[in-house]
Amino acid sequence: MAYIEFSGEVKDALFKAGRDKVLPRWVERTGGPDSEAVQVYNEKAAPIIGVRVGSGGQAEDIN
Question: What is the DSSP string of 4-47?
Answer without folding.
Answer: -PPPHHHHHHHHHHIIIIIHHHHHHHTTSTTSHHHHHIIIIIHH
